[in-house]
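Researcher: Go.
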Amino acid sequence: MSRFQQPPLVTGISPNEGIPWTKVTIRGENLGIGPIDLIGLTICGHNCLLTAEWMSASKIVCRVGQAKNDKGDIIVTTKSGGKGTSTVSFKLLKPEKIGILDQSACVVDEMNYYDMRTDRNKEFLFVLPPCEPSWH
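Model: Structure:
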């Protein structure tokens, strides 16, 4: 296998800790020569390639997934450079659980639809707890 450049080297990640699905910016050297050159990205042992956005040879943005390890390396693999190494690590935090009496955000989503039975436009307001759902 002939290599066109040095293996990827991850030298920074921001933020360096977070809960699953945290958006992170990875910085380093030789992180690929284009989006299709990026063939592997793992953080704490979790494959993050599907959420990866290749920005440049020194920057990749992605989301950290549900990893088995609480702390681990960021490994970038490219077609042109092979499997890389990391001088930094990411710490995966456990999401805070919200108890039954704790305050939490109320999520509201609206959905408009056409009811063919009544020949009218209708609106459904979808609300997640702790608020109560309502119909319009």
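Model: Confidence is low (pLDDT under 50) at residues 131-136.
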